[in-house]
Design a protein that fits this description.
The protein is an alpha+beta fold. It has 3 domains: about 110 residues, Translation, Eukaryotic Peptide Chain Release Factor Subunit 1, Chain A; about 130 residues, Nucleotidyltransferase, domain 5; about 110 residues, 60s Ribosomal Protein L30, Chain: A, CATH 3.30.1330. About 35% of the residues lie in helices and about 25% in strands. The chain has 11 helices and 16 strands. The strands form 4 sheets. The protein has a 5-stranded mixed sheet, sandwiched between helices. Strands 3-2-1-4 form a 4-stranded antiparallel sheet. Helix 2 packs antiparallel against helix 3 and helix 9 packs parallel to helix 11. The chain is globular, with a radius of gyration of 25 Å. The relative contact order is 0.11. About 5% of the residues have low confidence.
């Protein structure tokens, strides 16, 4: 899970109302069930000490949701009488849950939002490409790349004479120029899009020409799919299936790679690694003290969370700054935090990881992961 979307939560002070609610509408009494859920959320927040203005903001937002066509679930985060984030979930929460705490309770998002990589998709033909951004929840058209077009483009038979040969070369040169225009536009949009993958669809020759002109780093994250295309009659269903398979494969391989780097780099279970040491590529942190140190000093490339681990729900001490997190109160005070407060370890670590641009991967139950459920693959250090 990429954490950039959480930054608005950490740019302001709490306390926070955090709500996880199932929102499917498959029954005839859906409206009645919706009202009951709203009351349950309000009751839980009031019991937890939330102010009336923030409770009202949450309930009003839930009441405005359509009775049909909803995602499986939603997560709402509110503070100061305002809903700051309203996030559709890819899976239903096991139960309605509403908490009131100094930090937003964001940890459940790792398992509920879905870890499907986002894709920048290019629908390519000989005149240019339509670009689309897809994530786990929606797709959005993000522009076009238009190239030069020559009459007779696509004519690939053996020319009858040198004049036709010259003409065909013009057509081929025009296509290569168009491929370069598409590649340039993809390279421009990719960093800002936040996409994990670039997906090229269209004629094999045309998409291959675009891929060959992408920057090397992008080519490594680019895949070509056979289904779909730019023409109106292209099969959307087949393309959706292919992209789903590509995303699933990418997510699986990303987790396997991170776990392999973690296993190679970690010490003994629970060993505390000094974060100030030049750890080198692929080194790992495991156990609460080591992971807290690594996250606080922005060393974490990938934070690993196991849902069945014991450390995630443990309390740490934090201050208002995103990097003010410590295992013990005295450590937080030594950092200059005047009034440390308790917070869940997973929420505090995710706050620091979001500020550092780290990614978070959920280790499924039953898959060997970090001891205690918290681990990290560290960045290159100099």
């Amino acid at each position: 899970m990429e954490l950039g979307f959480l930054k608005p939560l950490f740019a302001r002070q709490g306390p926070w109302a955090s709500v996880y609610i199932e929102t499917t509408r498959a029954t005839e009494d859906a409206q009645r069930i919706q009202k009951l859920r709203e009351r349950e959320v309000a009751s839980q927040l009031i019991d937890a000490g939330a102010d009336a203005y923030t409770v009202r903001a949450v309930v009003n937002r839930l009441a405005g949701e359509p009775v049909s066509g909803a995602p499986p679930g939603r997560a709402l985060f509110a503070a100061g009488a305002e809903v700051v984030l309203d996030i559709p979930l890819g899976a239903s929460p096991a139960a309605t849950g509403a908490t009131w705490s100094f930090l937003p309770h964001v940890a459940p998002l790792a398992g509920l939002r879905g870890d499907e990589p986002s894709c920048l998709v290019a629908y390519i033909d000989h005149t240019g490409a339509d670009l689309e951004l897809r994530d786990a929840h929606h797709r959005e058209a993000v522009g076009q790349a238009q190239g030069r077009e020559w009459q007779g483009r696509g004519h690939r038979s053996i020319p009858a004479d040198r004049y036709e040969w010259h003409y065909r070369n013009k057509v081929e040169n025009a296509w290569n120029e168009t491929a370069g225009i598409i590649a340039t536009e993809l390279a421009r949009q990719w960093p800002e899009s936040g996409a994990d993958l670039v997906v090229l669809t269209g004629d094999p020759r045309e998409r291959r020409a675009v891929r060959n002109q992408l920057p090397e780093q992008m080519r490594a994250m680019t895949v070509e799919v056979d289904s779909g295309g730019r023409s109106p009659g292209a099969s959307k269903a087949a393309l959706d299936r292919e992209i789903a398979q590509v995303r699933e494969k990418f997510a699986r391989e990303r987790l396997e790679s991170a776990l392999e780097r973690f296993r190679m780099g970690r010490g003994r279970p629970g060993e505390h690694r000094e974060s100030t040491v030049d750890t080198g590529p692929g080194e790992a942190a495991e156990g609460m003290p080591a992971v807290v140190d690594a996250v606080r000093t922005h060393q974490v490339a990938t934070l690993l969370l196991s849902p069945d681990g014991s450390d995630a729900a443990r309390e740490v001490w934090i201050g208002p700054g995103v990097d003010e997190v410590a295992v013990q109160r005295g450590q937080a005070e030594a950092m200059g935090v005047h009034k440390p407060v308790r917070a869940r370890a997973d929420d505090a670590l995710l706050r620091s990881a979001a500020a550092a641009g780290s990614e978070v991967l959920l280790v499924p139950a039953g898959v060997p992961g970090p001891s205690g459920g918290l681990g990290a693959v560290l960045r290159w250090t100099i």
